[in-house]
Design brief:
Blueprint lengths: L2 E3 L11 E3 L14 E3 L24 E3 L9 E9 L8 E6 L4 E5 L9 E4 L10 E3 L8 E3 L1 E2 L6 E3 L7 E7 L2 E5 L5 E5 L3 E4 L15 H6 L55 E3 L1 H8 L1
Antiparallel strand pairs: 1-2, 3-4, 5-6, 5-8, 6-7, 9-16, 10-13, 10-16, 11-12, 13-14, 14-15, 15-17
Length: about 280
């Protein structure tokens, strides 16, 4: 998918790019597959901010995607749509019973294409089937971690994992991060990679465009007063931090592992960090 350039009529538009929406075939979502996004942004059920620097932005409806098509479903792709809530495009499909669904639009899918979710579905883009029936080396997306729970892995624009091996009850899948993980061979996945792969190359260009996306300004800790942030303070002028990088509440950030890996560690064959060291 090509990137659209802007003429440099203003300093902000110099170098700014956007997506080419030529592949989108309709302007409005299906009324029965949307819901209103309500509630305060980035806050928990107590109203406290849990993710900072979020809020505002353009109003948008949430599209209800089906991440676990029932086995035996055959459908026709009717529209390719824009979804403001995710980086990927979505496809509106109509199944054999006349019911509509939204799914992630794989790379190369077009209006009129036929897709199926079956145990022995053919290895074609968009089809969904268990890992045990997918040949090794195949690029897949929208992968289940637990059979029947629905897709959880490789759902963002351009994402594609690779099935590299199958051993008894588990398959080894190389994720987009480079991590190799064991997943049950009964779990399902869709063939191909997610479309809109050029999303990562978009240059936002100006602050106002970021505000429309729902991002609020962020202030660096080193320019704050000492009372407001551990990095703050000093006798005027630019200065370096007087301590290792930390959050406003004192928790270490860079070079300090914060990710909780409890129940899932045993299924990781090679971590993403080990993969990066191999590449280096």
């Amino acid at each position: 998918m090509p990137i659209k350039l802007y003429n440099p009529t203003t300093p902000a538009q110099r170098g700014m790019t956007t997506q080419d929406f030529d592949t989108i075939t309709t302007k409005k979502p299906l009324r029965g597959l949307i819901k209103i996004k309500k509630g305060p942004v980035a806050r928990n059920n107590q109203g406290r901010i849990t993710t900072r620097h979020r809020g505002g932005g353009a109003r948008r409806y949430y599209r209800l995607l089906n991440y676990r098509l029932e086995t035996g479903t055959t459908a026709i792709v009717e529209q390719i749509e824009y979804d403001p809530n995710r980086s990927a495009r979505i496809a509106r499909i109509k199944d054999h019973s006349g019911k509509y669904h939204y799914i992630l639009a794989p790379k190369g899918i077009e209006v009129g294409a036929r897709i199926s979710a079956e145990e022995e579905a053919s290895i074609e883009v968009g089809n969904r089937l268990p890992l045990k029936n997918i040949p090794t080396g195949t690029v897949i997306h929208a992968i289940e971690l637990q059979p029947g729970k629905g897709a959880q892995i490789a759902r963002t624009a351009g994402a594609g994992a690779q099935l590299i091996a199958k051993e008894e009850k588990y398959a080894q899948v190389r994720l987009p991060s480079g991590e190799v993980r064991m997943i049950s061979i009964e779990a399902t996945a869709s063939i191909g990679s997610v479309g809109n792969e050029q999303h990562q190359n978009i240059k936002v260009g100006k602050a106002g465009r970021k505000r429309h996306m729902g991002f609020r300004p962020s202030v660096r800790g080193v320019v704050m007063a000492a009372a407001d942030h551990p990095h703050g303070g000093g006798d005027g002028g630019k200065h370096r931090m007087a301590r290792p990088p930390t959050t406003p509440w004192g928790q270490k950030t860079l070079g300090y592992k914060t990710r909780s890996r409890k129940a899932s560690t045993k299924f990781i064959v090679r971590s993403r960090h080990q993969a990066k060291r191999r590449q280096g």
